[in-house]
Amino acid sequence: MKTVNLGFLGCGNIGGGVWHLLNEMHDEILARDGLDLRVKKALVLSIPLARTDVPAEILTESAEDVLTDPDIAIVCEFMGGSHPAADFMRRALENGKTVVTANKMALALNWHSLQAAADKSGAGLYYEASVGGVIPIIRALTVSLEADRIDQVMGIVNGTTNYILTRMAREGSDYAEVLADAQKLGLAEPNPEADVEGMDAAYKLSIMSSIAFHTRVTVDCVYREGITGVTAEDIACGREMGYTLKLLAIGKRRGDTIEARVHPTFLPADHPLSRVDGSLNAIFVHGAYCQDMMLQGRGAGDKPTASAICGDIVCAALNERPQRASLRYTEQPDPALTLTDDWTCRFFIRVSAKDAPGVLAAVASRFGQEGISIATMLQKGAGVSGRARLIFITHEASEHAMRRALAALDPDIAAVESVIRVEGE
Ligand SMILES: NC(=O)c1ccc[n+]([C@@H]2O[C@H](COP(=O)([O-])OP(=O)(O)OC[C@H]3O[C@@H](n4cnc5c(N)ncnc54)[C@H](OP(=O)(O)O)[C@@H]3O)[C@@H](O)[C@H]2O)c1
User: Fold this and answer.
1) pTM of whole model > 0.85?
2) Residue 154 and residue 423 in contact, taking contact as beta carbons nearer than 8 Å
3) How many angstroms separate the alpha carbon of residue 60 from the centre of ligand 1?
4) Catalytic sites, residue numbers
5) Which of 30, 48, 88, 130 is buried most deeply by CB count within 10 Å?
């Protein structure tokens, strides 16, 4: 039997879930793995205000009690935010303690200094729960698929936005109405910005793409558009044309170029990601050898997240040699790979057009000048002020060419109302 003392940095929703799992599963883990896992200290901001049923004698308001205790071998970080969480994790690693974290923001923004501290001291850095909650995407990419060449990771990695889009699609409701309801139900934060503006998904994509493509894809390289501009009308028009709208985190490698983007995306209704509804997460991966595969599960919540975190804890406690991301250790991206913001995809374009002869030809001609051809068109009768709603789905086109074509459209003839990228065909 091996006794392993753990220290928690943070003990709220996730820390409490991990505490409960470790208590409930203690004897099974001991019998199966010979590990006696004990939580020695748990840092909170304020003991009197702590929202936890972890025994008071374990709680502390001093990070030093966790970071410098020689008996604590594994530090588990569930504080959230970049600072001081990243500083605390770095200090724990420098002190030779293995770190397990669920914090995508701190990891995505400080990964290299954390990995450097881990490399220097020989401690482990584990972060399975930082992307997709319980979905084992980090292990899939770093262990199971290590020998493959991954060219696509495409995921629904934010449960709040997937819940909002699912309800907008089912009920035909507007974004603001569903968001307010999600906030009442506790499914969206009082300040939802990080979720609805795509920041949370961008942190996760930065981590997934860096691992999948063996290069550094920093958060500021991720193109980002949230769901605040999505309308029930777009969702309904897309559905009529056979598409489902999702907020996707997309990382692709095409030859020597990498693209990383988070934006609302139409997928064919029969794509596996189209059927992932509500607060579920799913990540679709394509590789030269593994081909298409998809992992699906709960991306948040204390129990599913605790399952992923405790898997890391057991793995760290069992292995003398720490698990490492198969990431080139450099502040710079791989020089052989270029990050591009000029990807190609199909586009859904909705315009309010003058109801007059020749308008369609004028729009098609603008697109044609940029080498963009139209695959499908739908007209939705006369809209505001006698103008017609026209919806185009294009063939594959370059992002830059599309921006130029749209900028050149005369708004008196065709005012652009929505531009949504189409993937998965
Ligand atoms: N919630 C999810 O479903 C989920 C899923 C996957 C990953 N995660 C990640 O897990 C982490 C924790 O999330 P959570 O939902 O558990 O957050 P939470 O409920 O707000 O808990 C945060 C904990 O950290 C403590 N804390 C915060 N700042 C501190 C500071 N400066 N000094 C000392 N203690 C501090 C808080 O103390 P008090 O108790 O005194 O306030 C609380 O115990 C985040 O990084 C999140 O992104 C969450």
Assistant:
1) yes
2) yes
3) 15
4) 204
5) 130
Which domains does the chain possess?
2-134+304-318 (3.40.50.720), 147-298 (3.30.360.10), 344-422 (3.30.70.260)
Q: What type of residue sits at position 399?
A: E
Q: Which residues of the chain have pLDDT under 70?
A: 321-332, 382-384
Q: What's at 197, amino acid-wise?
A: E
User: Which residue's alpha carbon is at the smallest distance from atom 23 of ligand 1?
Assistant: 10
Q: What's the CA-to-centroid distance between 63 and ligand 1, angstroms?
A: 14
Could you read off the pLDDT of 201-235 as tens digits, one per residue? 999 999 999 999 999 999 999 999 999 999 999 99
Q: Which of 19, 45, 307 to mutate to test the pocket of ligand 1 (most atoms within 8 A of CB)?
A: 45
- In sequence order, what DSSP letters do the residues of 286-350 get, joined into one string? EETTTEEEEEEEE-SSHHHHHHHHHHHHHHHHH-SSPP-------SSPPTT-EE-S--EEEEEEE
Q: What is the pLDDT of residues 93-150, one digit of tens each?
A: 999 999 999 999 999 999 989 999 998 999 999 999 999 999 999 999 999 999 999 9
Measured by CA distance, the residue closest to atom 29 of ligand 1 is 45
Residue to mutate (ligand 1; options 14, 131, 280, 310; most atoms within 8 A of CB): 14
Token digits of residue 382: 């006369």
**Residues ≥6 apart with Cβ < 8 Å to 221:** 206, 260, 339
